[in-house]
Known about the structure:
The complex is a heterodimer of chains A (322) and B (174).
Chain A: H1 6-19, H2 27-37, H3 39-60, H4 65-85, E1 86-92, E2 99-103, E3 108-113, E4 132-135, H5 141-151, H6 170-180, E5 186-189, H7 190-196, H8 203-211, E6 224-225, H9 239-248, E7 253-256, E8 259-262, E9 268-270, E10 276-277, E11 294-296, H10 299-304, E12 308-309
Chain B: H1 2-24, H2 30-44, H3 54-71, H4 73-91, H5 96-101, H6 104-113, H7 117-128, H8 133-140, H9 144-164
Helix pairs in contact in B: 1-2, 1-3, 2-3, 3-8, 4-6, 6-9, 7-8, 7-9, 8-9
Amino acid sequence: MTRKPAGCAQIADDLLATAVGEAVRGAAERVAQHVAACGACRRELEGYRALDETVAALRAAPLSEAEQATARTRLERTLADLRSRLLAYRIFPSPLGPILLARSELGISLVEYLGQDATLQASRLLRESGVDVIEGGEELDAAYRQLQEYLEGRRRRLEWPLDLRLAGSAFQRAVLQATADIPYGAVVSYARLAQEVGKASATRAVAQALRRNPLPIAIPCHRVIGTSGALTGYAGNKVGLKERLLTLEGVPTAAQAGMPTIRPQAMYWLYPGDTEYCIPTCPSLSTRPLAAMTHFGAREHAEAAGYRPCTTCRPDLHPISR
Amino acid sequence: MSQVFEALVSAHHDEIYRYLRRAVGPAGDAEDLCQETFLRGYRAYATLPQDANVRAWLFAIATNLTKNYFRAETRRRRAYSEVQATVRETTDGRPEAEMLSRETGALVEAIVQGLPLKQRLAFTQRKLHGLDYETIAQSLGCSAESARAHVFQALRKIRRALDGHGLRPGEPLQ
């Protein structure tokens, strides 16, 4: 290949740039001037222009359309599967310590008190099978805001879509569903809950199911207590949290033999199926078993749950003083 | 989050697939790499800043996967020898008129397959996908000037290779 004259070698870059539409300022003019006098370079320019057109045609033309479509279908299927298994989490500060919130595409799946070690490593998420875990973004902000409002006493109900995928068994799910119905500011016994799910003798199984509640606060297992009134068990060993939550909801507690306990005599009572709530000494309650009762800490919470003051014992006229 | 990502797949999948198809060639794993690109994108999407250039980001992921793909030495050798075969098939034993009437485009594709990786990727991103030099530079890990140089070197090589096959793009039949 013969070497180009000096002028042609100098203009070569600008010439190529001009041919493919990437000329810098002034280059196009210089090139036009040069090729006006240089036939070889003019042919170069035309050659590159033609190449650019061929390339432009490639850009517009389809490529491996069948494979492309197959690839896309396969990807969409994989993403749908992935989406269904994906849990996005974030760890938030709270008055109860660091709390991990995780959600799937269906709803909030996990609320976890992390204690000292506020990292993903401490979370049960890493030990769940069939889930993929990623760090979440703002989709958890709204849930956190509601949680904050609840913990500050400014909200009585978390309006979260819930996903019970981390609840192990049908029995556990049934227990959690029944627990979700317990109103704000009320407590019921394990025995009562066992009766609700149709397994009156399975009190211990109910307690176990609640121990593994993946959605504390949202599903208010803190409102479930021993028949004696004792605040037995919460999230493993976090009875202190249970007490704080009950206090927040206006349920009075006291220490009894070293164990925090509710004071049923200082609460309003409701028998399942009744529409009216009573003071503890109401005659209409005399034949009812204590274990079956719902106990409310405050009249406003009983009434917010849709119950009316009993027309016999008149809690509205004789409210419990503390 | 998931509906937004679905929209991204709709908007960018086919383009990313075509990019990878040219990046690794017809015998390569474009489909697998494309899948992996979007899976990585899906996992990282929640932490992407609001104003991020999603298209450029997807190209960067795809490019990264391509570079990893070619780092396996044996793959590189295999891909090269397959490309040589493709080019030979296109030109052996055919009368010149038939050659000229065959799509020059297909030959350009084959020549692009034989380019060094960075030139092929820079050329494809610039001339077939219209990406700006900043984006190309970021995905290749070089400067914008280098990216431009890669594109121009690719163009020169394609032109010379076409000359070598006796084809001048755009020339009328004799």
